[in-house]
Write a structure and sequence with these properties.
Keywords: FAD, Flavoprotein, Oxidoreductase. With 581 residues, the chain is α+β, with helices and mostly antiparallel strands. The chain is built from 17 helices and 24 strands. A hairpin with a 2-residue loop joins strand 10 and strand 11. The radius of gyration is 24 Å and the shape is globular. The structure holds flavin-adenine dinucleotide.
Amino acid sequence: MTAHDQSQSSYDVIVVGSGAGAMTSALFAADQGLSVLIVEKSDKYGGTSAISGGGIWIPNNHYFAAIGGQDSPELSMQYLKAATGEHGDPQRLQAYLDNAAPMIKKLTASSHVRYAVAAKYPDYYPQLPGALPGGRTLDPELFDTSLLAEELPNLRKPSPSTLLMGRIAWTARDAHKAMARSFGWQWLIFKLMARYKLDFKWRRKSKYDRRAALGSSLVASLRRSLMDRNVPLWLNTDFQDVLLDGDRVCGIKVATGGKVLELKARRAVIFGSGGFEQNQTLREKYLPQPTRASWSATPPGNNTGAALEAGMHIGAATALMDWAWWAPTIAVPGEEKPRGVFAERAFPGAIVVNSLGRRFVNEAAPYLEFVDAMYQDNQKTDGRSVPSWVIFDGHFRHTYAMGPLMPAQVVPDSRLRKEWLNTVYWKADSLEALAMQIGVDAQGLANTVQKVNGYAQSGVDLDFERGANVFDRYYGDSNVKPNPCLAPLRKGPYYAMRLDAGDIGTKGGLLTNRHAQVVREDGQPIPGLYAIGNCSASVMGTSYPGAGGTLGPAMTFGYIAANHIASAVSAPASAKVRVLS
Ligand code: FAD
């Protein structure tokens, strides 16, 4: 366990959790002269944020403006209102729009955090008014992790699936170029590999790239910026409860190093400790069934909803408790968590069916809508869509990746791990034999494939309009005509992979106001308590407006919370402290 200095037990602000939102709030609080402590339950910092894509959805951002992009507060609000519908709180949405772009401008100007605009990454609902075909998602630049010095081993490691060849860092923009096989992609791969190989000095220390990308870059650059400010981060420190002074939250109780400590927060406590996705009991209580913590693509064991339960215990209101940031996942033996299937569903030639052999959704749909459709179909079909099956043929297998399977032209079946056959993927010479192996209705599957092969020829998916909008086509193969998301399945062998109804975090949590303060049922804030990220009910309601729709708000409300705390006239004098347990 990393030793931390426990001589100081009183701070202006205590932040619970070390995801990107939590660290952003700590950074902005420190920059306004407040003393800040971050406590983190795990022996690694960064949470799910560190293994994520690190993308942030920031409407009206300055990067897009700098390349001549056209966005505006009005257009962004029009889109957000349409996306969030009845679940959108106009005041919180306004606070988000007012603060997201200033937050990232200030953060990048005053820290090691660096972003670039993903100018062609479309909003997830291109059919809605105010949607843009690109420019609102920002993608982290690479970060040199040698700058983390002694804090490098404590950084949560990214999933190998996010690294080229399991070890080389690349931005989401580069990964997309390679996946979509856009012009010059082979040259790009060559350059990335050469850069990695020629870094002889770092090669002697580690087989992993010196650079971090995606969420790892975001978290590493935030951590380095907090080190510059001497903000302490205590690992292995488990938040257990809040301390109260009357009805005001004035500190927290933590377990660390075999002891229980009381830590005082003179100004405020900020909960940034993630959702409850790793708590099977809470999943069964709140989420649609069936549900499993093991289907979640988040790090196991940490985000168990401690802050949520502590907040509810002192009267906080909650919202959206039956929602998650859904994403289908594939379990891989030996890996600590399953892998999210974000992009590959849109590649031409893979279809998804229930055990009746029927499609039920546009496979290229955003991941939240995809799993939502799985649950809806599961209800309609009396339990036949959770899990579902992604089916593809030999041509797809040769050309494209799916989950942990690299294209066969790079890693043929003979070089796949033996234990993956019949656990990660199933394979047969005919569709009928494949259907038998996985318990899918063979006639249903044959009918579906026949239909889809016809759609591939005409380019029009008459059932689900796959490939009919700019978002679907973003992950399609631009070399495939007439529809980059549709190709026939007709070349054996045939393959199947199991898709679970997974998530990348829960969406419901403590209800907050436009200042990120936790509120009671009557809307009154609980003094001294703020919540950001997935332990708060999402400002996005049940929607996922674009890539970065979870981290963008987490960081923005982190910034808002820090500003609100710093602007309070004076710290309340602490009187008697009461521990709830
Ligand atoms: P976390 O980042 O999980 O941080 C919570 C921290 O709190 C953890 O470190 C945890 O250990 C700690 N903690 C929990 N309980 C306690 C306790 N009792 N005491 C102390 N500490 C505690 N979202 C995007 O917006 N853009 C993307 O590109 C993106 N890509 C993703 C890719 C993948 C593969 C995955 C899995 C997710 C992705 N997401 C993305 C989702 C995003 O990562 C999460 O929604 C986000 O990280 C949640 O942030 P958070 O701060 O709420 O939680």
